[in-house]
Fold this protein.
Amino acid sequence: MRSFAGRDILSLKDFERNEFFRVFEVAEQLEPIARNRRNTDILKEKTLVTAFYQPSTRTRLAHESAMIRLGGQVTGFADAKMTRAGDFYQESIKDTVKMLEFYGDVIVMRHFQQGAPAEAAKWASIPVINGGDGWGEHPTQILTDFYTVLREKGRLDGLKWLAVGDMRMRTMHSLAYGLSQFDCPITFVSPPDMSLSDDFKAELKGMSLDFKEAEHVEQAIAEADVILVEPVVQPDYTKSRDERGDDVNLTPANYKITRDLLENKAKSDAILLHSLPRMDEIPPDVDITKWSRYWQEAFNGVVMRMALLSLVLGKNE
Ligand code: CP
């Protein structure tokens, strides 16, 4: 297995099966630290730099919380408008990263341009973690989801997935790439204008992913062990800022997971994931049901970032 020390986490396309299990193993070892709300000194000599060009609640704060739990320091920005990248100068990724690499030991970057974290990794002498790049990928979110499934179901192989939402989304790309390493058939349900592109389908076939598409969640929910939902009413991920108007559409029933649907059609032991934020695709009355696991995902989001920071900073060799 390749070493994680010094490595960038940019995509799940280049993750090998045994590397997933190595990350899960480290996450499991570190999980008690987060569960017991302790801070340790595992990364006490290290600093995380956050470079967020797009809004985030979970990804940025989970990385920061993970670093603090491991005894490290955090610096960075949550809004590029307050930096030279976001004002008159429009400072390039290269020039920005050539500064950031001296301010810490690992960078987590979210950007509205697909490939921006990869561009950063080209110039940085320290590891770069992709915190979501345009429509590209969101590897740390899907690693969190896989870890949640492993903890909740005890395995990944042999589980059937249903993914509902906009298939152009970065989470869906990382999900499909990641599942190609497991025995996990998946059904994708999306509006026609948000469906898997032909190029992406060809790529997934080349990766031997067992997938099919359906028009309505009712056609696929009964056989699903894991239901992963994302919004179909959502912003443009290629924009640096997005002001939401009042005329927000409602989610059609085809792409909505209601309590009634779960009670009448879903497996009793299926689990429901959502990376959040949500619109109305999962109504709040689903929160307190036996299916929902998205709050567990939130906790696991910190655990997973602890594992990744610890691994790329060479603490688990
Ligand atoms: N799931 C996720 O990426 O959330 P944030 O946009 O709040 O980071």
Remarks:
- Residues 56-59, 132, 141, 275-276 surround phosphoric acid mono(formamide)ester (CB under 6 Å).
- The chain has a mean pLDDT of 96.
- The chain is about 35% helix and 15% strand.
- Strands lie at 47-52, 73-77, 106-111, 128-133, 161-164, 186-189, 211-214, 226-229, 271-274.
